[in-house]
Amino acid sequence: MQSSRHDFWAGLWGALPFCIVVAPYGMVFGVLAAESGLDIFTAVAFSMAVIAGAAQFTALSLLQDQAPVLIVIIIGLAVNLRMALYSATLATHLGAAPFWTRAFVAYAILDHSFALADQKFLNEPDMSLPRKLAFYFGATSLVAVIWIVGTGFGAWLGARIPDWLALDFAMPIAFIALVAPALRSLPHVVAGFTAATLSLLFASVPYGLGLIIAALIALVLGAEVERRLGAAS
Amino acid sequence: MSISTATLWLVIAGLAFGSWLLRFSFLGIIGKKDLPEWVKRHLRYTLVAVMPGIIAPLVFMPRATDGAFDLPRFLAALVTLLVGVWKGNLMLAIAAGGITLYSMLNFGF
Predict the structure, then answer these.
(1) Could you tell me the pTM of the whole model?
(2) What is the C-alpha separation between A137 and A122, in angstroms, rounded?
(3) Which range marks the domain in which residue B13 is found?
């Protein structure tokens, strides 16, 4: 039987590409935070408390526009709605964990750590709960730390990252590489294609709500195609 | 135009608690309970239903070009996707996409 320690390192290893991607992303947030007048301590506290890139960027730009506090919070949370879907999916894998463990699992849910863990647990359904938890925390811990440290570094540095590095595109490439191996059956391809197409159609729907609508339709379509294929065979 | 300290900390606190609540929601409520098969079937598609929706606008309307279609970025994304589906290897797909992006940006177009 493999040890949990082994699984922690496996998770950490799987997340390494995202460490490289998240460092500049966190720095960009730090730079923007500094430009908006946040000191390093506040910028780092922001990243540590919220750890959600898209929501933080959205909140910061709304704050700069002098939007009311409640509006900033509601819109920031709308951008984060997909986390509830991740939560439901992780509950099918890690739901048996004790309350406080689940509280920590929740704090550290990130796009990539969810994706790595979900694929791992679907491919290896016989993994024990301690092993699953070890893998999950391995996949999420270092990236979370790098997001926070990167924010501080960016706020301290205060200078923009040169454009020619094209680091804006590091995140999309890493996410594509992450999701590509999951497109392994017709229902998955249908769901993925639907989500991509609808998110483009709904791109003008404000506050990331287009993403949620697209995701819900894609998820139902994928499951329906799977059911019909299953019924047909 | 500066943001007041009180405003800032209210937003941080609200977003922090709200985000945690969203992340904890189903993990907290469902816990040990086993979900019906049809729910689990839907949740197996969460990943492929959310991620492409995040990615597609970034690929077709990149921030770096203020949303204008950009051939180097599109081709880099395409190469990453094809290598990822074909080889199923994350690092290989990232490397292929990165090489495509940098060679397109520096040696052509």
Answers:
(1) 0.86
(2) 17
(3) 1-33
